């Protein structure tokens, strides 16, 4: 049984967290089920929402990176 854990910056999905998570999990579930040849019911997906102040990329906070764009 595949278990997929998705970590995402909380602020990226703050406008529609339930809708975005529903779409992402559906796409991931479908893709993994097809690739592995297993029933979708056997694919488990969880989300960890990480605050942008606690996520770093290239030595810089994601919050700062997002402010630059």
TrEMBL record:
Asked if the keyword Iron belongs to this entry, the reply reads no
Which controlled-vocabulary keywords does the entry list? Answer: Isomerase
> Which SUPFAM superfamilies does UniProt cross-reference here?
Tautomerase/MIF (SSF55331)
Q: Pfam families this protein is in? A: Tautomerase (PF01361)
Top-level taxonomic group: Bacteria
Q: Where is the 4-oxalocrotonate tautomerase-like domain?
A: 2-64
UniProt keyword Isomerase, yes or no: yes
Against InterPro entries, the record matches this protein to: 4-OT-like_dom, Tautomerase/MIF_sf
Family per UniProt? Belongs to the 4-oxalocrotonate tautomerase family.
What is the name listed in the Swiss-Prot or TrEMBL entry for this protein?
4-oxalocrotonate tautomerase
Which species is the source of this protein? Amylibacter marinus
């Amino acid at each position: 049984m595949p278990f997929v854990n998705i970590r995402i910056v909380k602020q990226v999905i703050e406008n529609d967290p339930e809708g975005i998570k529903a779409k992402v999990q559906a796409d991931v579930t479908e893709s993994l089920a097809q690739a592995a040849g297993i029933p979708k019911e056997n694919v488990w997906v969880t989300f960890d929402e990480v605050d942008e102040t606690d996520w770093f990329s290239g030595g810089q906070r994601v919050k700062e990176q997002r402010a630059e764009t």
